[in-house]
Amino acid sequence: MPGQVRGIYKKWFWNTYDYLGTLILVNILWVLCSLPVITLPMTMSGLFRVTNRIAAYEETGVRDFFSGIRDNIWRSLRLCGAFAGVLLLLVINILFYLRMMTLWSWTGAILSGAMIWLFMFVGLLGIYCFPLLGQRETSTWQVIKTGMFLVLDNARYSIGLLMVGLAILMVSLLSGVGILFGGVAAIGVLCSTGLREIQKQYETSETDEASHKEEARGWRDLFRPWEYQ
Question: How far apart are CA 143 and CA 137, in angstroms?
Answer without folding.
Answer: 9
